[in-house]
Amino acid sequence: MDIKLGLKRILLLSFVGASFFAVSCDDDVLNNLASGDTVAALKEALTIGAKTAATNLGQKDGYYGDAMVKIGMPQEVATVAELMSTSAGKTFLNTIGAEGLQTDNLVELMNRAAEKAAPESAEIFANAITKMTVADGESILFGKYTSQSANEEGNVTASFGSDKAATSYLYDKTYAGLQTTFGNVVTSTFDQVSVSGLTLNNAWSSFSKGYNQIAEKKNSTVGSTALAVMKLALPSDKAYLYDKVNAIQSVNTNLGEYVTGKALDGLFTKVADKEVDIRTNAAARTSDLLRRVFGRLDE
Asked: Domain residue spans in the chain?
């Protein structure tokens, strides 16, 4: 083979190989940049959602006046409220001497506590979002992420749908930690909010005392007789209350965990609403990054 021809071929192959390598490197760089932008945009969207949720839910009636996130009664309170809605139930409670079973203000107090704590959730959420490692921004952006949160039985505990995939991911990665950090904020409000001069801690303490009296006395001689009388006196559509009373045990609801869980559920609900807004409403994309990344969904 001609030496000059051989050298030309080697140089040509080297040039082609180098060009291919350069193009491949450029593609990798571009892909990495695009992936980084996607993750950054998702975190920005979630941060905006968290701030919006904290502001709106932190206003008066943010929780209490919004049926979607309003914190309802723990089961113990619901059972007593049902009993007190019937004359037969009231007679039973009076006969066994259960005291302090005021239920009227408990729901409002729980919601007021959540409203007072909500503004502080923004920074807690922001820290969690900043530290969160996003494994696959593209699948989240295009709504292909499936929630991995599950309880001990293996059932998914929260599913926000494909148009709320970023919120679903945030829930999976941060909820357990937020229960502790935000929980400390929530429980600190229990002595700071009051309705009719009664704080949440005082109201719950009084209620728990009366509820535990039911658990202690329902099987006594007086309690058994009163329960039998109540069974006969209950309207047919309330007959199930007899079984509910029989099943009462000492109060076991941890009010801090209960209110924190419900308050967090409300915050995530509002974060998800903001995510949908950013995904579907170009006007809600308030930065170049959001417009560039979420604009891909419009194509």
From this structure: 3-293
The residue ranges of DSSP E strands in 156-217, in sequence order, are 194-195, 198-199
For residue 42, what are the contacts with CB-CB under 8 A and spacing of at least 6? Answer: 134, 137, 140, 141, 166, 169, 293
Show pLDDT as tens, one digit a residue, over the chain (299 residues).
Answer: 555 545 445 444 444 444 444 444 444 444 444 568 999 999 999 999 999 999 999 999 999 999 999 999 999 999 999 999 999 999 999 999 998 888 889 999 999 999 999 999 999 999 999 998 888 899 999 998 877 654 443 433 456 778 999 999 999 999 999 999 999 999 999 999 999 999 999 999 999 999 999 999 999 999 999 999 999 999 999 999 999 999 999 988 899 999 999 999 999 999 999 999 999 999 999 999 999 999 999 98
Collapse the DSSP code of 114 into the 3-class scheme (helix H, G, I; strand E, B; otherwise coil) and give the result.
Answer: helix
User: What pTM, to 2 d.p., does this model score?
Assistant: 0.82
Residues 82 and 241: beta-carbon distance below 8 Å: yes
Per-residue CA distances from 6 to 15, 17, 181 (Å)? 14, 17, 71
Please tell me the distance from the alpha carbon of residue 147 to that of residue 175, in angstroms, as a whole number: 12
Q: What is the SS3 assignment for 220-281? A: CHHHHHHHHHHHHHCCHHHCHHHHHHHCCCCCCCCHHHHHHHHHHHHHHHHHHHHHHHHHHC
Distance CA 93, CA 230 (A): 10
- Length of the chain, please? 299
Cα gap 260→110, rounded to integer Å: 10
C-beta separation of 79 from 267 below 8 A: no
Angle between helices 200-217 and 87-96 (to 10 degrees): 80
What distance in Å separates the CA atoms of residue 84 and residue 174, rounded to the nearest whole number?
A: 40
Q: Which amino acid is at 78?
A: A
CA distance 252 to 150: 23
Report the Cα 64 to chain-centroid distance in Å. 16
